[in-house]
Automatic annotation (TrEMBL):
UniProt xrefs under PANTHER family: GH13245P2-RELATED (PTHR24276:SF97), POLYSERASE-RELATED (PTHR24276)
Gene3D superfamilies: Trypsin-like serine proteases
GO biological process, one term: microglial cell activation
Protein name listed in UniProt: Azurocidin
GO molecular function: heparan sulfate proteoglycan binding; heparin binding; serine-type endopeptidase activity
Protein family (similarity comment): Belongs to the peptidase S1 family.
Gene: AZU1
Keywords per UniProt: Antibiotic, Antimicrobial, Chemotaxis, Digestion, Disulfide bond, Glycoprotein, Heparin-binding, Membrane, Serine protease homolog, Signal, Zymogen
Keyword Disulfide bond part of the UniProt annotation: yes
Length: 252
């Protein structure tokens, strides 16, 4: 496939606008992730039920989407690391309550700044295989159109389906910047249905080993994209300022 045709197909996936959106949960298409393939992946739960994803970016902090908690109380939520099969008791799991949250001007009407930092009640025990930190891009870094990335999460493979027992991963392609928005990284799947859907907000978009995006919203039918991710590189300095606060200073 020529680069010109690739860009044409990607452009066909998108029509920029403010667009209404729904919370995200499902990974549509793709394949079952291998055990320990995404050791930074977090399952955010209420009463033992997964409702959003997230990424461990520091032993004490999870990066997720602010939209995940629009109608939920963080006081009743838990964060699970080291999980694979959500329907089994696994010795690799570490479960945390949320000590505090930090957001940065989230605008639900415009779907802007959809990032949230969850401070865990204690630091995670990092292991070489089941629990690890994912690195972030530097401030204002960009990811080029045509870049192949991955997004993984627990969830149904179709709208209103049951949550998957294990995470699924789908390969996606970054769309041209003029077919997205400056505050987002946008992706699509060219050859078939695939991507994110209702309920899996907050799961990371990983490009070249870095968490460049946080799943925020999707346009069009489930799995047909384009998918919009909050652009993490715009918030790197803010993220560092929260993580590096002196002990005892609670985030706002």
């Amino acid at each position: 496939m020529t680069a010109l045709r690739l860009l044409g197909l990607l452009a066909g996936l998108l029509a920029t606008s403010r667009a209404g959106s729904a919370p995200l949960v499902d990974i549509v298409g793709g394949r079952k992730a291998r055990r320990q393939e995404f050791p930074f992946l977090a399952s955010i739960q209420t009463q033992g039920r997964h409702f959003c994803g997230g990424a461990l970016i520091h032993p004490g902090f999870i990066l997720t989407a602010a939209s995940c908690f629009q109608s939920r109380n963080t006081g009743t939520a838990t964060v699970v690391l080291g999980a694979y099969n959500l329907r089994r008791r696994e010795r690799s799991r570490q479960t945390f309550s949320i000590r505090s949250i930090s957001e940065n001007g989230y605008d639900p009407q415009e779907n802007l700044n959809d990032v949230l930092l969850l401070q865990l009640d204690r630091q995670a025990n990092l292991t070489s295989s089941t629990v690890a930190v994912v690195p972030l891009p530097p401030q204002n870094a960009t990811v080029e159109a045509g870049t192949n990335c991955q997004v993984a999460g627990w969830g149904a493979q179709h709208h209103r389906g049951r949550l998957s027992r294990v995470p699924r991963v789908v390969n996606v392609t970054v769309t041209p910047s003029d077919q997205c928005r400056p505050n987002n990284v946008c992706t699509g799947v060219l050859t078939r249905r695939g991507g994110i859907c209702q309920g899996d907000g907050g799961t990371p978009l990983v490009c070249n080993g870095l968490a460049h995006g946080v799943a925020s919203w999707s346009r069009g039918p489930c799995g047909r994209g384009p998918d919009f991710f909050a652009r993490v590189a715009l918030f790197r300095d803010w993220i560092d300022s929260v993580i590096n606060q002196p002990v005892g200073c609670a985030p706002a």
